[in-house]
Design brief:
By secondary structure, this protein is an alpha+beta fold. The protein has four domains: 135 residues, Beta Polymerase, domain 2, CATH 3.30.460; 86 residues, Orthogonal Bundle (Hydrophobic Seed Protein); 88 residues, no CATH class; 53 residues, Serum Albumin, Chain A, Domain 1 (Orthogonal Bundle), CATH 1.10.246. The protein is 49% helix and 11% strand. Strand 8 and strand 9 form a beta hairpin. Helix 6 crosses helix 8. The model has no long low-confidence stretch (mean pLDDT 92). The structure holds adenosine-5'-triphosphate and magnesium ion (MG). Adenosine-5'-triphosphate binds next to helix 7. The site of adenosine-5'-triphosphate (ATP) has 12 residues, from helix 7. Belongs to the tRNA nucleotidyltransferase/poly(A) polymerase family. Bacterial CCA-adding enzyme type 3 subfamily. Its cofactor is Mg(2+). Homodimer. One of its GO terms (molecular function) is magnesium ion binding. It catalyses: a tRNA with a 3' CCA end + 2 CTP + ATP = a tRNA with a 3' CCACCA end + 3 diphosphate; a tRNA precursor + 2 CTP + ATP = a tRNA with a 3' CCA end + 3 diphosphate.
Length: 399
């Protein structure tokens, strides 16, 4: 019995009842055989996408042209793909031709690594023509077929190999490694979005040092945007101690270690989303502030709460241990949560200084007050703040 697949078994049975063959395949089978928690379940079948759509009530057509649909069943998603072989990778992006074939073995042959080319039927029996099970036992990543050919067909597989090493603590079989080191340059053919997607998983892997080691030893790192030609930056990767759960955490530390490359440059070269870029900037600000000074009320006030865990992970790993409770207690004690909570406003300032022209000084004054209130040097009381500001900005002082 393999309970993790129980819902999936219904899908296989239903497809078989309609005269098709269907198997579990890919990462879920691999992870099940390794004994690690399985993620998304992939199913490979002789049924065409239209036939799958006819059989199941809830089907989302995510990639019909590649033969893939998502079947929703009892709140779970199953990626169901029609058996296929792919030919011609001239543009390095989409197979020129996707030909549906009623042949499980050919479908397995197009898959990247032997450990990912194992099919499993509804009884848990495996179909394993490329000896993926023994690769799993050896903790070995090897391509299905000749490595250099498989990497030329789709250079992204090189990065996939390294991210699996980082996720699974597997080695690269020697021929697979040599082909990867020889072919590293080909990664340039791959779009940055797809590269970033794999790198994100590599850096989040529990065996990240292994992934980084391979990235550097194969020299694949020297073929990646931003890293290219920057040996110091490449070397700074060896300072990585723990997995980065988010891309923003990784770039934050890389910028901290190698300040020649700015966050904007990273964002542009890696096509980061605006959100990731912003988070990286906020995290970087918090890290550079706290590494120079300390973790104080001002830092906690400025740190967005959704970045708290990232901040704690980085600070604890690369500076000194800090507890979540400590930061939360600082947060709880904050006299204000935002600038708007100040008991003075811009309008007050204008009223108190009728002789002054409106201008940037108003915002500057409010920011100074904000900081002093947050760190507890001034109480958030209008009369006290008025006195302070009258003294600081009295008519004799110049703009
Ligand atoms: P994860 O646990 O991260 O989902 P996975 O092995 O399932 O890992 P997916 O990207 O979900 O990876 O792909 C599902 C399966 O499709 C793989 O196991 C592999 O058999 C096949 N596959 C994916 N990408 C490629 C590729 N670039 N070349 C060949 N086969 C691939
Ligand atoms: Mg998967």
């Amino acid at each position: 019995e393999f309970p993790a697949f129980s819902n999936g078994k219904n899908i296989l049975e239903k497809l078989e009842q309609h005269g098709h063959s269907a198997y579990f395949v890919g990462g879920a089978v691999r992870d099940f055989l390794i004994g690690r928690p399985i993620g998304d379940i992939d199913i490979t079948t002789s049924a065409k996408p239209e036939q799958v759509q006819d059989i199941f009530p809830k089907v989302i057509p995510v990639g019909i042209e590649h033969g893939t649909v998502i079947v929703r069943h009892e709140g779970e998603s199953f990626e169901v793909t029609t058996f296929r072989v792919e030919e011609g990778y001239s543009d390095f992006r989409h197979p020129d031709e996707v030909e549906f074939v009623n042949d499980l073995e050919k479908d397995l042959a197009r898959r990247d690594f032997t450990m990912n080319a194992i099919a499993m039927d509804k009884y848990g029996e495996v179909i394993d023509p490329y000896l993926g099970k023994s690769s799993i036992k050896e903790k070995m990543i090897r391509t299905v077929g000749t490595p250099s050919e498989r990497f030329s067909e789709d250079p992204l597989r090189m990065l996939r190999a390294l991210r699996f090493a980082s996720q699974l603590d597997f080695q690269l079989e020697s021929e697979t490694f040599s082909a990867l080191a020889d072919g590293a340059e080909m990664i340039k053919e791959i779009s940055i979005e797809r590269i970033t997607g794999e790198l994100e998983k590599l850096f989040a892997g529990p065996f990240v040092s292994k992934g980084i080691g391979l990235l550097r030893r194969s020299n694949l790192v020297d073929c990646l945007p931003v890293f290219k030609g920057n040996r110091r930056l490449q070397k700074s990767l060896s300072q990585v101690k723990v997995p980065f759960c988010q891309l923003s955490e990784l770039i934050c530390m890389l910028v901290y270690w190698e300040q020649q490359v700015t966050i904007s440059e990273w964002a542009k070269a890696w096509k980061l989303s605006n959100r990731t870029k912003k988070e990286t900037e906020q995290l970087y600000e918090a890290i550079s502030y706290s590494s120079e000074k300390q973790i104080d009320a001002w830092l906690v006030y400025q740190l967005p709460s959704h970045l708290l865990d990232s901040f704690i992970r980085l600070y604890t790993t690369y500076f000194s241990p800090v507890s979540r409770d400590y930061i939360l207690s600082l947060n709880k004690a904050l006299p204000i949560r935002q600038k708007r909570d100040l008991s003075v406003t811009g309008a007050d300032l204008i009223e108190w200084f009728p002789e002054r022209k409106k201008g940037p000084w108003i915002n500057q004054a409010l920011t100074s007050i904000e900081k002093l209130v947050v760190i507890g040097e001034l109480p958030n009381q209008k009369n006290v703040l008025k006195e302070w500001v009258k003294h600081e900005y009295h008519p004799q002082s110049t703009d």
